Amino acid sequence: MAKEGDMSLFADVLEPFRRVINTDPPKDKLSSASKLNFSDSNQSLKEGIGNLLSLGKRKSSIGMMNDMSTPEKRLRTESGSTPASAPPSPWETKRLKGDLIAARAQIIQLESRISHQHTLRKEMQIMFDEEKGCLMEQHKRDERRLSEMEDRLQLIRRREQDLKDDYNEAVKQHKDYKLKWDQEKIELQKQIAELKDNLLDAHVSSKDQLSEMKKDMDELLQALEGAQSESELLKKEVERLSTKAEQCSTMRTQLEKTMFELQVANNKVKELEYEKDSYHDWQQQVKTAQKRLSNMADLEKEVGRLRAQERSLRDIASNKLLLEEQVHVLQSRVDALQPVQNELHEAKVKLATIESALEEWRSAARAHGIDTARGLSSALEAAFTSQITAADTTSKAQSTVAQLTEEVATLKFERDKVTARVNDLAAVKKTHENLIHRLQKRLLLVTRERDSYREQLDCYEKELTVTLCGSAGAGGAALLSARVEQLEKALQSYRDLLAASEPAAQHAVVENLRAEASKSRDEAAALRREAGKLRAQRDTLQLQLERISQHAPTKILHLTDNPAAEAHKQVQLDYEAAQEEIKRLKAALRDGGDSKACPDEIQQLKQQLESSKIKLKRLKEEFTSSAQEYRDVCYMLLGYKIDRTGHKNYRISNMYAESSEEYLTFNLDEDGIEMVHTDYSATLGELVELHLHQHRSIPLFLSALTMELFTKTTMQQVQ
Amino acid sequence: MSQQQTKNCITLRGSAQILCEYLKFAINSVLFQRGLYPPESFKAEQQYGITLLISEDPQIKDFLTNLLTQSEEWIIKKKVNKLSLIIINVANKEILECWDFNVQYEDGDVALSKEKNETVGSKDVKKIQQEIRDVMLQVAATISYLPFLDCRCSFDVLVHAKTDCDVPDKWAEAEPVSIANAQNVQLKSFTTSLHKMETVVSYKFVD
Fold first, then answer.
1. Coiled-coil regions in this chain (chain A) (predicted)?
2. Looking at residues B119-125, what average pLDDT do you find?
3. Looking at the predicted complex, does its ipTM rise above 0.90?
């Protein structure tokens, strides 16, 4: 491309030469063609340059040609001289001279052209040099670029190589991974297959187990059924056995009864045997007695002796009984007295401790300047009340705080409301002002209109007077009068219009609006005043704030032993003391709430209690002793021991009763006293029948019983 | 000429003494008016042409003398901005009232100062006393609108000193006080031409 450009440039440069050559005279065409072979332009650069070089050579040859003719010229001159060998004719010389002149001219021409060509060539040379430099530079640049490119290419190649390596590595890795994964996959598949096998096995085994378990279950169910049936059977058996057991028990009871009976019978048998034995004895005795009957007197003597002995024995027995009774009474009394003694000891110990506690209390109270229990309690009460009042005041203070905050909130709300109202009023004022402004404008317009109408009217009137003055013709007068009338009408209408427009309605409206405007103005002024006030307040507050903030960098100092601190300390001390006292009193309350609260009173009460207890005890003792005495006396006098077994139930047992089982029970009711049936009473059928049913006298019955028992016992003893 | 000069000349120390005297009477007056101490412990005294009450309690007397001697020194050195008499509810340490005595320093009579080669004022003492009397009367009148103190109260005086002021023995730094929902009443101020004393009472506003 560049070369082509260069070529075209070259062709452009060469173009004028061609033209010059073409415009050469035809006779010189050949020589010029042979001398300057420009038309035969070679297209290549090198050839062009070579041409130029040859041109240079030619130039040198041309330079030489100035001194001596060119070979061609020489040739021509030779060719010219050949005919000149012959003597030249004047015409010929003339012609030759002409030719010479022409040739010289041509030479000059050619020389000038050559110089021109030289300059051109120089220019060309310069241009070419420049071009060459440019091209060289470009070449160098290209080379540099090429080298850079090569470097880059190498870099890229290296990078490519690296990448390729990486790729290969990655591919290898991938392959490895694939291989590994394939292996893993195969392993996993194997595992899966194994697991499947296991699963199948497990299925089978589980099925087996299941069937086994089912079988087991069936068996168990059967067993259960069997067990149930068995249990039923057993139950039946149990029932049977229980019935049997019942029967057995009944039988046993029967057996026991029979055994008892047997024993009784045995006893009876024994008794009978004993009686039989005694009977035998009796028989022997009788025999001996019959023997002894002979010596009756001795026997009677012996009888008397024996009777005396018996009597004495009986006395002794009764004495022994009495003594036993007395021993019993004394024992019981000792038993009753022992706890009393213990209590006495305890009471003494307690008394000592209580007295010491009392002394402590008294000292504590005296330490606080309180001498009496009542004073102490009142102090306690005062402390409590002070606490309560303090709590009360705190609650009150809290409530007031809450109230205050509430009020603040309401005030804020009101303030907001007021500001909102102020804003509203300002807006209303603005609208009113706008309205006033508009109305004033309208008023101005209307007045202007009226003025214009008036002017017009004046104009008309003037015109009228002028025309009236100016014209004198009758027709004109008529016309004028008509016109005047018309004008007057128009005037009237204008006036009407004016009247309509000026007037009261509008006036009123305007007044109204004015009043409103003034009102709103007043309002606005008031609001402004308020705003000013608020602003002033704000300013003062700001000032205060500033003052407060100004004081920030100051240091606040005070005397350490100021009255406030002292007062506070005092209060703290008082408070602590009070707290301590409260604690103490509370502890005291806790400790001795039930026994030591009011030591004096309690001591008194305790003493009273003690004395009353002692009294009671004494009374009891007295009572028991007297009751015992009474009972003993009754027993001794009447021969009956009366026991109270329950409410209105009395048991009496006779002095001469054979056993303690022999007793009678009486029940006291509204009608009197009634005998209750007992085992023993059942044996006294005769006496009951005789004395109770016939004589209806219980004392008689009892006396009879005593008599009977006495006779019985004496009989026995006698026997 | 010279006689007049000596008559109206107030030195810095003298001005500080006037201030401290005022403070003593003002504090005593407040203590009496606000009923912090029983009225029988106060003694009437003629000052500034009016009868003022001064506490006879030795503790208060000691406290005030200690306070005012130190304050006088500080006022001379211009270290004090403000003295605050605070009335505290002893039970809960709540500040119920705060009497601020703002001290402002003035140049006094510049010409005379130059002449005397020390800062002096040239205000008539009688005029100063007149001004102080007005303030004292106002203090006495405050009882009409200050809330009734119905709890056990005590007082303390805080000195708002400059930060570069060193703390002497028996003195300590205190916490700044503030009264919730405070209402401020500015009383009249007086000046000795060297010091200007502004009295402000702020109290807990309860409506």
1. 139-316, 401-544, 568-629
2. 78
3. no
